[in-house]
User: What shape does this take?
Amino acid sequence: MYWYSGKLIQSNTIELAIDDPGLLYGATVFTTLRVYHQSLAHPLTNWQAHCDRLRHSIETFGWQLPNWEQIQQGALSLISHFPVLRITILPNGCELITGRHLPRDLTKKQKYGVKAWIATNYERSLPLHKTGNYLSPWLAKLAAQQHSAEEAILVDEQGNWLETSTGNLWGWRDNCWWTPPLSAGILPGIARSQLLEWIKQHCPVQEEPWFVDAVDTFEAIAYSNSVVQVIPIHTVIKQHGEVIQKTYNPYHSSLKLLRQLYIA
Assistant: This one.
């Protein structure tokens, strides 16, 4: 079941023209949101922020604007079936909305954390926009899994940490939360924006580059996105599988603050 161009369709296939730029070049923009209590109006769903992100990218690329009422209608048609929606917009303004369930092991990862792999030479295309050309992060995550890691950490040419293949990074030290700045070339995550505003109400937070020699100073690190909320990272392995000397505490008390945002 999915919604495409104003219609709810009962199928697992879609028909696209063979010269569709979304098919040929990944020329789409998308956003993925978790719907809380089956309500687009719930503050944690943050519906308007997801629509605003789509609008910003569409206007930046000069594409045709979609029918926003039609998009909302499609989302409402699916939220009784799926807690997670992905809204994709094609250059001609057509919308494709698909749904999925939460990962089965999400609670386990949130509690115990995951292992991450440093992914060099995986540069994300147009990092300030969430485009359908997501090949590089997808390949990075596949490579991480080949090293028995659940996530990949993308880095710049100097090896500075940027973000994971699916989310934004958070680190705790000196009684302060730290996250890489947007100027480093990372995705402006919706969950990142929510967490920034939440943290600022309770403790200091700094948006600074994560230089290679600084990441070992963190007591705890985690990543966030709109679907998984916050997941700690307990171990980081390098390109060829060797473990970085310092591991991180997935049970650190500082993580409680990040999680409190999602207590609804």
In short: Residues 106-260 form a domain with the D-amino Acid Aminotransferase; Chain A, domain 2 fold (CATH 3.20.10.10). The mean pLDDT is 94.
